[in-house]
Amino acid sequence: MLLMQVLCNIQVFAKVMPSLFAPHFEDFFISSSDTYQIKALKLEILSSIATDSSISAIFQEFQFSDVCNDICWIEFSVASTLVTDLVQRIDITPKDGKWQDDYVRDPDRTFAADTVAAIGLCARQLPNLASTCLEGLLALTTPKSLNRESGYGEGEAIVLIQAMISINAIIKLDPPSHEKVIIHLVRRLESIKVPAARSLVIWMVGEYNSIGHIIPKMLPTTLKYLAWCFSSEALETKLQILNATVKVLLCAKGEDLSTFKSILSYVLELARSDLNYDIRDRARVFMKLLSCYICSHGAEGEEKHQPNEKDLPRLLAECIFRGQAKAMSPVPVSYRFYLPGSLSLIVLHAAPGYDPLPEPCSLTYNDNGPSLNTAEGDSSRDSYKVEDLDTISRSMDEESTCSDGSQDSATGSSSSGMSGSASGGEDNTGSFINFSDVAKSNKNQNGGSDENDARFGVNNLGELMSKSALESWLDEKPDSSHSSPEESDVRRSLARISIGDITGRVKPKTYTLLDPANGNGLKVDYTFLSEISSVSPLLICVEVTFTNCSTEAISELNLSNVDDKSQDSSDGALTTESPLTSHSDVPTLVPMEEVTNLKSGQSTKRILHVRFDHHLLPLKLVLWCNGKKHPLKLRPDIGYFVRPLPMDIAQFSYKESQLRGMFEYTRRCTFIDYIRELDNEKGESSLTKDKFLIICESLGLKMLSNANLFLVSVDMPVAANLDDASGLCMRFSCEILSNSVPCLITITLQGKCSEPLDVSVKVNCEETVFGLNFLNRVVNFLP
Amino acid sequence: MLEKQLTGHWVDRQICAWFWEQSIAQGDSFKLLPVIASPTHYLFQIVREGITFLSCTQVEMPPLMGIEFLYRVADVLSDYLGGLNEDLIKDNFVIVYELLDEMIDNGFPLTTESNILREMIAPPNIVSKMLSVVTGNSSNMSNTLPVATASCVPWRTTDVKHANNEVYVDLVEEMDSIVNRHLHLLEALRRDGVLVKCEIYGEVQMNSHLSGLPDLTLSFANPSILNDVRFHPCVRFRPWESHQILSFVPPDGQFKLMSYRVKKLKNTPIYVKPQLSSDSGTCRVNVLVGLRNDPGKTIDSITVQFQLPPCILSADLSSNHGTVNILANKTCCWSIGGIPKDKSPSLSGTLVLESGLERLHVSPTFQVGFRIMGVALSGLQIDKLDLKNPPARPYKGFRALTRSGEYEVRS
């Protein structure tokens, strides 16, 4: 087991720097007592460290492990415990008639196939050894038990298919020089019974039909043979026979043409009445496309008279079948990189606490300090807002320290945290909505980009229907280079917008702490504030509003912790306040300064700094009022246990990719809030707003007023159905107050605008318990 | 199930239930995974003689440390209990618990050196068991902290006294080699296979019973052949790097001083020539074993083992020397013992293949075992062993042993 760990680490190094281990290749040779995982790892290392000098030895070793692995399947039964299992299986399986089924699961057969794949990989890495590798692979395709009537076992089939794939990959590098290999395979065709391998050979026949001198000569015989055994073939082989025949026909010249034509029409006839609809469909398509070839069997003269009419289908056919297959791009190094020696490397995802190497040049500008902005937008506005809020909160502090009872309620309300964001909203009222392309940066603000996006979408549609897409669809082996742009096109038709004025409308929820009925006419409400406490970042700011609903004045109002005995009305007690919890110097409740007098009908506000310690249990408080005390319970809101973590979409997706697996939780719910707003909208103005925008806004508002989040991005579907909101996606980010662990929230919508939308909420967070609680909270407040 | 919560952070027992479920569902391949990602924790596991040692973490940590620690626990336990099995652990539950208590503290490995653990927790024996039964005092923890924990040589107990001072050095080597059959038929007839890989993994094991605080120096005649050396923590690095001399204060008792590898050896002491020829449903097997280079000492405990292919219905194998057994799992085990002077041992016989099979298209791998006393095949020689501040004239003893590790002959 230690060995496996070590090999995992070596593998990382070997991939990045093969030269480190190249001289020690012998140490990675496989012995029969290794487990499958270790064998596979060793194999992978061997194939990545192969060099010109060592390849011959490695290659020989590969061959041996192939050969040996023909028996290797027993080796695994060396583990004595497995034997009983095996015996049982052997007892049972023949009765069920599922012999082969068990061989598939056999680890060592798959290992042999792995080895073959590794040979192919080596050959591609070191092209000058391709021919050596080919020889070995060809030897493998020679069935060792020709006289075995039952054909190949499942295990051997896997090996054979893998060998074919490897051969195919090598030939692709340089088809003309491997002409003999193709011929060899074609000759062997009769003995290659495994459908997948067989169809690969047939594909090669079609693809390389005009290479060299010998292949064109043997084509008629080959095709006749294939046509003859067409009806007894498996599905994939039949399809390939059809393809190959057409390809050959399109390239054919001279006297063979008529032979091919008759073969094709014979095959198509057979295919048209096949049991499988795929084959029937393909036959019909070919008949239409190639009608000129099939019908003009005896009338070549006619063809010359009407060249224009025949031209189109023929061109199309040529396009489809003779389009040059794109060269295979080198295998992308797509594995994620983790530091060697780490747990993350073994489990292949970032474990909690995993600390990757910093990005190059990222360490120079990292200390912005805790930024206070709650809203999105471009960076210039951001910095402005930070300052703005800063000054406001400072002035607020000053205001609250003077503790003047005669302060009227108007100034009290203006000093609330909302004013900061309201003033931030003022400067971007001009641009209501900012469209920007995904490819571009987020800073595009002019309305013209709206048009841009629309045109972009149309272009995409045109491209979707293009020849290359059709070709990749028709061709049996869709090239990855064809399909990938298509996919990214689809994704690009989402517009990324930012909603400008949403923060101005964020209204935090107000909860009741004390009812006037219980409190002798004193009403106490509280609201969670989104700003960071000035005392300690661990504290959460709660704004408490005291309202005197009674007819008499109330004096000496104060809130304190239950255990807090030292609290009395003197100011001196505030400074000598000792920390309540022994393990930390941050108190559970920073003492609030007292409201000395509250007249009838008057209300005043205070900011409380509370530490919930990450507990979701209510905090017990005591309200001192006129010398009496009332027990109260302050219920925490997990949505405010976090602070906004500003980041851009790239950072977001990077973080998200680190937090997969056990750190990702998803729940679904419905969202209906916006429907009311949609109805309002219909009634009041003829200038209808975009439905999507309303949804985005109401969803964003809902999120931001229930939790302290940063809105990272909004993706909207563009074009297509105007009523279909599927694909609308909002991303929020935040970090947990106590330990600064980032927490990412992605909300994806599905459904129609006019109906309740299906919302799927995804939370990525390292802190499992927190993440799940947070997710539950979001799912609770959304509907 | 023995469970110990070591930190304030409580780990739910549920995780073990999850582990068992998975283990039962996925069978033996699951046992081979050293690191498992469960929905809530990352698990490290090792399996030793049917006992699974499991540790878990929620955060990133070097997995090698976790696994190495589990190995240490398993080693110490088997050292204390004289073996590892369910009954032993059940019988000595208290000791196991105490050991775990000492070995790990708040999730960090603490005392893993078995010498010191022995001083703190008395190993179980009849007398202590009797005592605990009679007195009712079940604790066998010593009340004092061993002095060594605070000293600069924590592996050695400070005040050791032996009546007769002696120190033994053993060279134990294992030969790992792979022999291929020749691809070309002619060469295959002429010679007996290609040595693909032949290397020796060796250990220097010491058993020291010396009083006081001795300082030993061990030097080799030919240290240059050593590769990939790994030392016990007591070995000082500086003298090794400059002069290839091992200078150390040894722990008391048996310990592994160093391990090394010697690569690219030229030949093996014995040869094994398997020949398989199959035709019309039967396969003739002929295996020859003989001495190649006489190492000068007798080679004994020679065994040849191979797995019969699954497509074989019956086997009829006999040898002219030694015994042939075919075990239940279709392993053919031929124990030869020593090679006689007058004849070379050979195994021959026929295998009957499954019906419908003409030829055997697979070929087994032969695993060879042997043992040579008194010789280190790598050629490593100990030059001298010096003692500084020796208590008296100690008795010094040297031994060497070579046995086969993974010695495979592919046919």
From TrEMBL, chain A:
Its main location: membrane. Residues 365-384, 393-456, 473-492, 562-585 are annotated as: Disordered. Residues 403-425 have a biased composition (Low complexity). It is found in: Cytoplasmic vesicle membrane; Golgi apparatus. Residues 365-377, 426-449, 569-585 have a biased composition (Polar residues). SUPFAM superfamilies: ARM repeat. GO terms for biological process: intracellular protein transport; vesicle-mediated transport. Residues 466-617 form the AP-3 complex subunit beta C-terminal domain. Pfam families: Adaptin_N (PF01602), AP3B1_C (PF14796), AP3B1_C_2 (PF24080). InterPro entries: AP3B1/2_C, AP3B_C, AP_beta, ARM-like, ARM-type_fold, Clathrin/coatomer_adapt-like_N. GO terms for cellular component: cytoplasmic vesicle membrane; Golgi apparatus; membrane coat. It is a peripheral membrane protein. It comes from the Eukaryota. Residues 474-492 have a biased composition (Basic and acidic residues). The keyword Coiled coil does not apply. Keywords: Cytoplasmic vesicle, Golgi apparatus, Membrane, Protein transport, Transport. Belongs to the adaptor complexes large subunit family. This is AP-3 complex subunit beta C-terminal domain-containing protein. It comes from Escallonia herrerae. The lineage of its organism: Eukaryota, Viridiplantae, Streptophyta, Embryophyta, Tracheophyta.
From TrEMBL, chain B:
It is found in: Endomembrane system. Residues 164-410 form the MHD domain. Pfam families: Adap_comp_sub. One of its GO terms (cellular component) is endomembrane system. Gene3D superfamilies: 3.30.450.60, Mu homology domain, subdomain B (2.60.40.1170). It comes from the Eukaryota. Keywords: Membrane, Protein transport, Transport. Its main location: membrane. One of its GO terms (biological process) is vesicle-mediated transport. InterPro entries: Adaptor_comp_med_subunit (IPR050431), AP2_Mu_C_sf (IPR036168), Clathrin_mu (IPR001392), Clathrin_mu_CS (IPR018240), Longin-like_dom_sf (IPR011012), MHD (IPR028565). PANTHER family: AP COMPLEX SUBUNIT MU (PTHR10529). Belongs to the adaptor complexes medium subunit family. This is MHD domain-containing protein. It comes from Escallonia herrerae. The lineage of its organism: Eukaryota, Viridiplantae, Streptophyta, Embryophyta, Tracheophyta.
